[in-house]
Design brief:
Elements: E1 2-11, E2 14-20, H1 22-27, E3 33-37, E4 45-53, E5 58-64, H2 68-75, E6 81-82, E7 84-89, E8 100-106, H3 110-122, E9 126-133, H4 142-147, E10 151-156, E11 163-164, H5 167-178, E12 189-193, H6 196-209, E13 213-216, E14 232-235, E15 238-241, H7 242-245, E16 248-250, H8 256-263, H9 267-284
Parallel strand pairs: 8-9, 8-12, 9-10, 10-11, 12-13
Antiparallel strand pairs: 1-2, 1-6, 2-5, 3-4, 3-7, 4-5, 13-16, 14-15
Helix pairs in contact: 5-6
Length: 285
């Protein structure tokens, strides 16, 4: 059993869970993820590690309530326990002193960008961070991202905070103003994490400038060890498995149309399951 030592509401339906997981915390690296099962009848869900404390043996997960499993997780409180937590899984982020780096996080994707930006900063990079959400109330980890960034730029869809528009729009404006030239730039690479549509849009922007872009994919996943094949994606015309080949890939090589279509395969079942859970909760009240 893995004890929840702290729970903090970051935004409506978004919470950070600090969980005792000594062995995972000891081995975790930026970019990796865990697979969680809340109870014996629960499904296995992948969640990217948002932070880790090796001395205290704690990892942090940021979760948005969007389905039955995340709704069940949202109901847990400090002191409660989770049945299964497997990890760290996947390959860690490539961390080197590249020079100038742009880190882009959209929505809950800001959480996994945070440790990557921190590691890149510690490696000597000049870190430019762009984070965005639908509204200012939905923006998470602003102070944390500021602490690991040399520049922090904020945008919201409705303009309630910072730039009005999407992260891809803010990124394009920034590149237009700050690139030395389109062939040899003074920015080494871009890391983007968020909804698939957002990452596709960011990759579309950076491709025009020849700026290497790394994305972390969030495909449907079951076992997390490469056995089931549920998380398969197409990268550079080849089949890859997010759990063992990723989760990070060259954003210019990812077939995002296929990724999005596969993410929607069980949408009706997921919605029905969530509605059933909500009905159960209403009946208990």
């Amino acid at each position: 059993m893995f004890k929840i030592v702290s729970k903090k509401e970051l935004a409506p339906d978004i919470a950070r869970f600090d969980i005792e997981a000594t062995l995972i915390a000891r081995k975790a690296l930026a970019g990796q993820f865990v697979v969680m099962r809340i109870h014996e009848d629960g499904e296995r869900i992948p969640l990217t590690i948002a932070a880790y404390d090796r001395e205290k043996g704690i990892i942090s997960l940021v979760v948005m309530k969007i389905g039955r499993s995340t709704a069940l997780l949202a109901e847990l409180k400090e002191g409660d326990s989770i049945l299964d937590l497997v990890g760290p899984l996947g390959n860690s982020s490539e961390i080197e002193d590249y020079g100038r780096i742009i880190c882009v996080g959209g929505g809950v994707g800001i959480a996994p960008v945070f440790p990557i930006a921190g590691e890149l900063k510690a490696a000597g990079n000049y870190v430019i961070s762009i984070i965005g959400a639908k509204t200012k109330d939905m923006l998470i980890l602003e102070d944390e991202m500021g602490s690991v960034s040399d520049e922090l730029h904020i945008c919201t869809d409705d303009g309630s905070l910072g730039y009005k528009g999407f992260v891809s729009g803010l990124l394009e404006d920034y590149l237009d103003k700050n690139l030395i030239d389109s062939k040899k730039t003074n920015i080494a690479r871009c890391i983007a994490i968020g909804p698939a549509v957002m990452m596709a849009s960011v990759a579309g922007v950076t491709k025009k400038y020849g700026l290497k872009t790394i994305v972390s994919l969030n495909s449907i996943m079951v076992d997390g060890t490469g056995m089931c094949g549920a998380c398969r994606v197409e990268v550079g015309g080849k089949t890859k498995f997010v759990c063992v080949d990723g989760p990070e890939f060259d954003g210019h090589q990812v077939d995002f149309d296929l990724l999005v279509s596969r993410q929607k395969m069980y949408l009706d079942q997921e919605e029905a399951c969530y509605r059933s859970h909500e009905e159960e909760c209403r009946c208990k009240k």
